[in-house]
Amino acid sequence: MGFREINSKMVEATVVPGQRLFSQRGAMLAYKGEVSFTPNTAGGQGGIMSMIGRRVANEDTPLMTVEGSGTVLFGHGGHHIQVINLSGDTLCVEADRLLAFEGTLQQGTMFLGSQGGVMGMVRGQISGQGLFTTTLKGHGAVAVMAHGGVFEIPITPQRPVHVDPQAYVAHHGDVRNKLSTALGWRDMVGRGSGEAFQLELSGSGAVYVQASEEKL
Amino acid sequence: MSHYPGAGPTVYDPMTLPSDDNVNAYTFCVELKGSQWFLQKGKMIAYYGSMEFNGVGHGGLDRLVRTSFHSPLHASDWVVAQGSGKMLLADRAFDVNSYDLEDGNLTIRSGNLLAFQPSLALKQSIVPGFLTLIGTGKFVAASNGPVVFMEPPIRVDPQALVGWADCPSPCHHYDHGYMTGVMGGLRALTGLGGASGEEHQFEFVGAGTVLLQSTETLMAEHATGAVPPDAGVPGSGAPHTGPSQVAGAPRLPGQLGDLQRRFGL
Question: Where is the signal peptide (chain A) (predicted)?
Fold first, then answer.
């Protein structure tokens, strides 16, 4: 299982009976074998409550369940794809960046205000995450989309990482993030550097950054 | 020509430009030595040498069109380049590659084909929006992301399909499995739940190669071949204004006339 990167914009997934795969609707490019694609009304895992939760949180990206036996090629919108393998830790990512993920992962929604209260909400607004973000937890692989290439920056307790909120893609591990501002009088008169807000991530884990400041 | 990291961009001149090869992943260089190439309008970005570009309807090209252009539907999109020199082809930073056909056939999405040698014959495919090339020669095609080659049997999303070679034309495959069962019945009755977006594929069987591009975004057609709609540009459709009659003001006696403009007054 897992995803195999064919090139920077295409991944191949092997589907075996009994193991489900979730993917964004319409992201299948081609497949071999007998594979079925079922639209997922609930938008992911869990019961009706988690579905309502996702609807409220506006993290209900249209997903479909991929089942059967064969190989499937995924890609979407010409975006670059980064495969992230999770081994027990939690990945935070925006739902519309999810291209595909394995059914072994637990999907959830996180309220950004739970991390730092009001500042967490402000941070969500600035980084385009909104008030909520999607979490994936467990063992398995995730294919995440980004505009432009993606690189991974490890976060260690001694070395916090500062990321442009618009270039932030996802992070995993035991990471606390906070918004650091460098607002000065220059920003007030419209002569700022354009880098007044930064996302500061500290703890241990990794953050994925895209080489573009464009949203998906 | 030395090229090492940090030395800045490679500078090409007419001698160092490759002949019928890629300059980089996004640009292809065609060398013309009194020969002809068909190319899609607006895909030429630069050329060295003396060349002329004529529409397919040009009288002098009658014989050429008769032998190797059989697609009246696309006639207005194609021009013939002839002369001698080197010509650079590119298409909106999409990956560009050349392919050689040897007495073969290849069908390709019409928007993805940039140029081809007249030794190939261009025909309309039975599948709408696709063109078939038959014969021996070289052609240049663009794709959003690198092209992936797959072998049948395979089912392909119609939008991700770039083309296919040597295999029979595809058929439609409809996946109605999501309509069955209790949930499927509810979905069919209420219309809730939507479609997975993957109910319809092109199915390829038999021997051959299927070409895929790694995205489903169809390449948006930008009118790169159009003449800018500015005044004084021939063929732009804008009203023609005289050389010195800026803003349409009639020239008064005693004005310096064209001299005024020449000196930038």
Answer: none
Element (H, E) at B111: none
Distance from CA of A207 to the nearest CA of B (A): 25
CA distance A164 to A26: 30
- B179 belongs to a structural domain: no
Is the per-residue pLDDT at B136 higher than 90?
Answer: yes
The predicted complex's ipTM stands at 0.72
Best to test chain A binding among B151, B155, B167, B192 (most A CBs inside 10 Å): B155
CB A78 to CB B187 under 8 A? no
CB-nearest partner of A26 from B177, B198, B214: B198
Residue B144: inside a domain, yes or no? no
Q: What is the tens place of the pLDDT at every residue in B24-76?
A: 888 999 999 988 999 988 888 889 999 988 888 777 788 888 888 888 788 88
**Phi–psi pair at A116, nearest 5 degrees:** 90, 20
Q: What is the dihedral of CA A147, A153, A159, A163, to 10 degrees?
A: 0
B20 and B92 in contact (C-beta within 8 Å)?
no
In angstroms, the separation between the Cα of residue A30 and the nearest Cα of chain B is 4
Q: Is residue B265 part of a domain?
A: no
Identity of residue B163: G
B23 lies in which domain range?
11-105
A80 in B contact zone (CB under 8 Å): no
The pTM (predicted TM-score) of the whole model is 0.73
Judge: A36–B157 Cβ closer than 8 Å, yes or no: no
Please write the tens of the pLDDT for every residue from B210-265: 998 876 555 455 555 566 666 666 666 655 454 444 444 455 555 555 555 555 54
Q: How many domains does the structure of chain B reveal?
A: 1
Contact B196 A9 (CB under 8 A): no
Q: Any idea where the domains of chain A sit in the sequence?
A: 3-210
B182 φ/ψ angles, rounded to the nearest 5 degrees: -65, -45
Per the prediction, chain A carries an average pLDDT of: 80
> What pLDDT sits at residue B117?
92
Give the rounded percent of residues in chain B with a pLDDT score beyond 90.
Answer: 17
Domain membership flag for residue B36: yes
Q: Is the dihedral of CA A149, A155, A161, A166 positive or negative?
A: positive
- For the domain A3-210, what is the CATH code? 3.60.160.10
